[in-house]
Design goal:
The chain is an alpha/beta fold. The protein has 24 helices and 16 strands. It has three domains: 124 residues, Phosphohistidine domain (Glucose Oxidase, domain 1, 3-Layer(bba) Sandwich), CATH 3.50.30; 110 residues, PtsI, HPr-binding domain (Enzyme I, Chain A, domain 2), CATH 1.10.274.10; 323 residues, Alpha-Beta Barrel (TIM Barrel). It is 45% helix and 13% strand. The strands form two sheets. Strands 1-8-7-3-4-5-6-2 form an eight-stranded mixed β-sheet. Strands 9-10-11-12-13-14-15-16 form an eight-stranded parallel barrel.
Length: 593
């Protein structure tokens, strides 16, 4: 049934995940992008033709993606993201996808049904991954699978490039290829049922500066073409059928946001220094060399967290030393003279290195992952260390070990690193003999022994995403307890202070590389705790710098003292918001930032 405008109650508010800031106001253009897939048995003599039909669909999908690449390669702001399309083309050749589907067809099942079963298995595999960024790579598999399904079923959606009037796009899901074809002049923003903060579609939306809200689950079943709507990509709020008063309110917010954006651009090249002269390093959290132009554009002073897991994804065997060396060198070439902190592999090997054939774990978050996996798989660990060390002569590299829970682990890592250094010396390879090593503080154990760990390493980096989950015993991906995930919980503030005090005592640097670092509302408190480095999504750097340049460390220290007197995260949050709104009303009024 097609809804009439009156069927949607005026000022219907929905809340999803805001993934690209900005406010879009306009009428909805509804895109389906949801295939209906049926399974049915086939006769034995039809298997060969069904396999051929599946191969034909792969060829068609590859051709479509190549055409998108050709169409967008002339767009300067999208060139750095063409690797996403290359990734999708590679997925089309993935053995687990192709061979798995053919094996299902050979069981006398139609191609759509076989593909559906294989995609279900792949999604389950990705859902078991703890790291949010890596878990979101499932969206790339979904995008490729959906493209193949539409080809096999003969379904066609309205192409986004053909939208000729200013609209808000509402869709079940949007692939990166769909997003790249958006005309920024006509697409005022988009909303999807599916998606997450770190999906490639979300990353593209931020790069293209298109307001976007994702993860609304079933919004496309509520709306229709031409329905007026408002989307706020900063807060995740979507308003359907807005009243005149709501329209006026959001129009004012939109004007204020766009004014602020122009002002923030002027901060890109200014130093990140407080009013009392404390210099804070603002770095980027990144995954691929192609992300680095974005980081530089936002004024990142190096990389505070380079996730190496992407190099190990979607392949039957791990990358060898030479492949890793080239990848790390490329990063250093891009970021020189700024430092790059390379985190060693932070994932369970069964998710990325199939031939290891590790058993499934009942509780992978507390199982064989991160440094535990690296120490067990010593050969893999040594190959990665060799590649990092060899690359270190081309720029300033720091090595960071993840999920440390004891001094013994650190000493074992240092011993292995020394053995690798000795072997490189014997082979005549150059490397940085003074390379800095650090650890991620993301377990309560690491917090409690921070004074001991600080004697062993050159720097700390606090991974607040995992620290909050482990400390509060909360899985933020579980909707039943996600409300307990609180970066401002008194236990978290006290944990941060313990770590910062330990680092100060041993005169080593301390940073935060979790999402907390990129939230401008927290900047003053973080500086007051004693952090001297913040690493974040590059898009957040200008906002954090804007705050940083208008506060002092002494102000931050005084704020922290007041925060420590409060018993609940809710009270802490209220005080921080009140303080920041009084000091910087232009930034913290009506959720502009």
């Amino acid at each position: 049934m097609v809804l009439a405008k009156s069927d949607v109650v005026q000022d219907t508010y929905l809340v999803g995940i805001g993934v690209s800031p900005g406010i879009g106001i306009g009428e909805i253009c509804l895109i389906s992008h949801r295939s209906t897939v049926d399974e049915w048995p086939i006769e034995a003599d039809a298997v060969e033709s069904e396999v051929a039909r599946f191969h034909w669909a792969i060829d068609q999908a590859r051709q479509q993606l190549q055409e998108v690449k050709e169409n967008v390669s002339s767009k300067q702001h999208l060139r750095e993201h063409l690797y996403i399309l290359d990734t999708h083309i590679m997925i089309l050749e993935d053995e687990m996808l192709v061979k798995g589907t053919i094996e299902e067809i050979q069981k006398k099942l139609n191609a759509e049904g076989g593909l559906k079963r294989v995609l279900s298995r792949l999604r389950q595999m990705f859902d078991n991954i703890e790291d949010e960024y890596l878990r979101e790579r499932r969206s790339d598999v979904d995008a490729v699978g959906e493209r193949l399904m539409r080809i096999l079923t003969g379904e066609h959606d309205r192409p986004l490039s053909a939208i000729g009037q200013k609209s808000l796009v509402f869709a079940h899901d949007l692939s990166p290829a769909d997003t790249m074809q958006m005309d920024r002049q006509n697409i005022l923003g988009f909303v999807t049922d599916k998606g997450g903060q770190t999906s490639h579609t979300a990353i593209l939306a931020r790069s293209m500066e298109i307001p976007a809200v994702v993860g609304l689950e079933s919004v496309t079943s509520l709306v229709h073409d031409g329905l007026p709507a408002i989307i706020d990509g900063s807060t995740g709020v979507v308003v359907l059928n807005p009243s005149a008063g709501t329209f006026k309110e959001y129009l004012q917010r939109k004007q204020a946001y766009e004014y602020l954006e122009k002002e923030l651009h002027s901060f890109r090249d200014l130093p990140a220094v407080t009013t009392d002269g404390i210099r804070i390093a603002l770095r980027g959290n990144l995954e691929l060399a192609s992300d680095f132009p974005v980081a530089r554009r936002h004024g990142a002073e190096g990389v505070g967290l380079y996730r190496t897991e992407f190099l190990f994804m979607g392949r039957e065997e791990p990358p060898d030393e030479e492949e890793q060396f080239k990848a790390y060198r490329e990063i250093l070439d891009e970021m020189t003279p700024h430092p790059v902190t390379i985190r060693t592999l932070d994932i369970g090997g069964d998710k990325f290195v199939p031939e290891l054939n590790l058993a499934d774990e009942a509780n992978p978050a507390m199982g064989l992952r991160a440094i535990r996996f690296s120490l067990r798989e010593g050969r893999l660990f040594r190959v990665q260390l060799r590649a990092i060390l060899r690359a270190s002569v081309f720029g300033k590299v720091r090595i960071m070990f993840p999920m440390i829970s004891g001094v013994a682990e650190v000493r074992t890592c240092k011993r292995i690193l020394k053995e690798v250094q000795d072997s490189l010396t014997e082979e005549g390879h150059d490397y940085d003999q003074e390379i800095c090593i650090g650890v991620m503080i993301e377990t309560p154990a690491a917090v409690m022994i921070a004074p001991l760990l600080a004697k062993e390493v050159d720097f700390f980096s606090i991974g607040t995403n995992d620290l909050i989950q482990y400390c509060l015993a909360v899985d933020r991906g579980n909707e039943h307890v996600a409300y307990l995930y609180d970066p401002l919980h008194p236990a978290i503030l006290r944990s941060l202070k313990i770590v910062c005090d330990a680092a100060r005592q041993e005169q080593i640097s301390v940073s935060i590389c979790g999402e907390t670092a990129g939230e401008p509302l927290y900047t003053m408190a973080l500086i007051g705790l004693g952090l001297n480095e913040l690493s974040m999504n590059p898009a957040a750097i200008s906002r954090v710098k804007r705050v940083l340049r208008q506060i002092s460390r002494q102000d931050g220290e005084e704020l922290v003292e007041r925060l420590f007197a409060l018993p609940t995260g809710k009270e802490v949050s209220a005080l921080i918001y009140k303080e920041m709104r009084q000091r910087l009303p232009e930034l913290f009024t009506q959720s502009i930032i």
